[in-house]
Design goal:
The protein is of the alpha/beta class and 281 residues long. Helix content is 40%, strand content 20%. The protein is globular. The structure holds pantoate (PAF).
């Protein structure tokens, strides 16, 4: 496994692969890796010839300084996990490498409303930061395929929209959510949960599992209210629970007309914000 910290060195190295027509798969991460990240790495290993994983805690996507500060960082453990998984290349740049002075990396893009609801409402500016860093990393790595997790469904749609709108020749591939035994979706933020909080947080997945049953009897807004009520449990503070069109992220008004329906939710558990979702149609 090769480790690069400098953009230029990584680009030179990847050029040797590209010149031999070898395909490059890319898994961007913010580190504190878990099985969910490794499943993206494995998917890339299976379908491309060179897998690059980046570890960079992107400051521009955090709308609260304390959240950035508290974000878990486990670099040596991450490198061991990637090595064992068979990852070929790791890119661990400094903020100066990603955002060099004099280079305007901001993205001015109409996200067609995808950035407005849910995460966009509760984390203003978050998706501008995500789009900025993903675009910058794509410019550096120039992968054939980009692997992103379903857990961040809204992020996936925004990155896919960006790639299409800017004609970036990278296929954006979605990987299914990996869950702990309790059903809790794997997330770097889970590292900040105590054992009791982990148990409490499992209610989110249990509620998502109920939704399909409720949908058979109740209209969307009622189902959302029932889900929010189910999440009113000791230790939990639901932020939103929405049934949205899987393509536009607009609230669904019936279950027949949208081609895809996704239930998306965010909750707070002991000062840690968790998100999860379920594709229902
Ligand atoms: O999903 C994440 O971990 C981050 O948002 C990403 C895509 C690595 C960009 O910093």
């Amino acid at each position: 496994m090769y480790l690069f910290k400098k953009t230029q060195a990584l680009r030179q190295f990847l050029e040797t692969y590209r010149s031999k027509n070898r395909s490059i798969g890319f898994v961007p991460t913010m580190g504190a890796l878990h099985e969910g990240h490794l499943s993206l790495v494995r998917q890339s290993l299976e379908s491309t010839q060179c897998t690059v994983c980046s570890i960079f805690v992107n400051p521009t996507q955090f709308n609260e300084a304390s959240d950035l500060e508290k974000y878990p960082r486990t670099p040596s453990q991450d490198l061991t996990m990637l090595y064992k998984a068979g990852c070929h290349v790791v890119f661990m740049p400094s903020p100066e490498e990603v955002y060099p002075t004099g280079l305007d990396t901001r993205i001015k893009l109409d996200f067609k409303g995808l950035d407005q609801p849910m995460e966009g409402r509760f984390r203003p500016g978050h998706f501008d930061g995500v789009a900025q860093v993903v675009k910058r990393l794509l410019d550096i790595v120039e992968p054939d395929k980009l692997f992103m997790g379903q857990k961040d469904y809204q992020q996936f749609l925004i990155v896919q929209h960006m790639a299409r709108t800017l004609s970036i020749p990278t296929e954006v591939v979605m990987s299914p959510i990996v869950r702990e035994k309790s059903g809790l979706a794997m997330s770097s933020r889970n590292q900040r949960l105590g054992p009791e909080q982990r148990e409490q947080a499992a209610a989110l997945h249990q509620t998502l599992l109920q939704v399909e049953k409720w949908m058979a009897e109740f209209p969307p807004r009622e189902v959302e209210q029932m889900a929010l009520q189910a999440l009113q449990q000791p230790g939990l503070e639901p932020e939103y629970f929405q049934l949205v069109d899987g393509q536009t992220l607009q609230p669904v008004s019936d279950y027949e007309s949208p081609a895809a329906i996704v239930a998306c939710a965010a909750i707070w558990v002991g000062g840690v914000r968790l998100i999860d979702n379920m594709i229902l149609k």
